[in-house]
Design goal:
The protein is α+β, with helices and mostly antiparallel strands. Helices cover about 20% and strands about 30% of the residues. Strand 6 and strand 7 form a beta hairpin. It binds 1-hydroxynaphthalene-2-carboxylic acid (1HN).
């Protein structure tokens, strides 16, 4: 859009209305209505080994209890100081050391965990406890009590993804702590999965939550699904083999505000270019390869993390059979009729 010329009379007018909390649209229109997405969010890669070293150092500085959550925030280089990995989402790496208890609290913000390293620490959500392993995708729905503990002898590391900036945008945040560090366990481990994880549903289920009733999608089953589908040898040019985690009650995304995906890229596969309006956070869990995001190339291996901003071309290339987890605000964009994607010519 055209930049409107300045004249002394116009400048004087802008000055005058400025004092009354008024501004002329014609001076800013081009900045707020862009022909294509124009984001401050930038492509970035974090190597997990670097983060693990800093987390280990943090472990000597502060307990999980004092920190409430011992998390290092993945701050997008274009959005520093805002606790954002993309314009709409938060990401962090959490470490739970042997003996740690991350005390019970609850908040409006929904959270996902994608387990990166360690095995057997627990998270408790809404009265049920689950042991976690690498590759597991675990959900903490909005306003559910949650606490974490580690009774193993090794530290646990996972990726936290939260819809914090979305809740912030709507000024809709509520949070509270608990007087007890750990919530009471009221249901046996595996209860949610038994009821909802086998293509069966309770006959008189009357849940009001928009979040999936399955709170741990174990990697064992995810990996098996990918391996089975791989046998058909039909690859999507842009995605390899990509699946979305779904809510068995609705068929919608597993979480109302965050879409979560798992993707297999076979050895030697190179994807066709793809872009979409949902800025996406990727975490590699298996394999090795590289992704080209805009003008940058990121070499990744297990546990490395990278961001693809809105409307940036991305291609992936795998040197070994590789599995990528990813998440974005796609469910929100689709419900608001804002989501767009471009498969190039593929
Ligand atoms: C939170 O509650 C967790 O429960 C992790 O593990 C990260 C980041 C910001 C706000 C709350 C957790 C968080 C968080």
């Amino acid at each position: 859009m055209e930049v409107v010329a300045k004249t002394p009379e116009r400048e004087a007018f802008y000055q005058k209305i400025d004092g009354q909390n008024l501004a002329a649209l014609w001076n800013v229109m081009g900045d707020i209505i862009t022909p294509e997405p124009k984001s401050a969010c930038r492509p970035h890669l974090w190597k997990f080994d670097m983060i693990r070293d800093y987390m280990t150092e943090a472990g000597k500085l502060i307990t999980a209890k004092e920190a409430e959550r011992r998390v290092l925030i993945l701050e997008n280089p274009g959005l520093r100081g805002q606790s954002k990995v993309t314009t709409s989402l938060f990401a962090g790496i959490q470490m739970v050391m042997p003996g740690d208890i991350a005390p019970a609290h609850r908040h409006s913000q929904s959270a996902l965990r994608f387990i990166l390293e360690g095995k057997g620490a627990y998270t408790s959500v809404d009265g049920e406890r689950t042991a976690m392993e690498p590759g597991d995708f675990v959900i903490t729905p909005s306003m559910t009590w949650h606490d974490h503990s580690n009774e193993t002898s090794e530290p646990m590391f996972w990726l936290d993804g939260l819809d914090i900036p979305i809740v912030q945008f709507f000024d809709a945040s509520f949070a509270e702590g608990s007087k007890d560090d750990q919530q009471k366990i009221t249901r046996p481990a595996g209860d949610s999965f038994a009821r909802y994880g086998h293509n069966l549903l309770p006959v008189d289920g009357k849940r009001s939550s928009k979040t999936s009733p399955i709170f741990n999608y174990p990697y064992h089953y995810t990996r098996e699904a990918l391996e089975q589908a791989k046998a058909r040898d039909e690859w999507d040019a842009c995605h390899g083999l990509k699946l979305k985690f779904s809510n068995p009650e609705t068929g919608d995304f597993a979480m109302p505000t965050i879409g979560t995906f798992i993707q297999l890229l076979p050895k030697g596969f190179k994807t066709a270019r793809y872009r979409a309006t949902d800025a996406t956070v990727f975490a590699a869990i298996e394999g090795k390869g590289r992704s080209r995001v805009g003008e940058q190339t990121f070499e990744w291996g297990p546990r490395d993390l990278f961001v693809v901003p809105s409307w940036h071309w991305v291609t992936h290339e795998a040197d070994a059979d590789s599995v990528l987890f990813s998440f974005s605000d796609r469910p929100v964009q689709q419900k608001l009729d804002l989501f767009r994607e471009d498969r190039g010519n593929a």
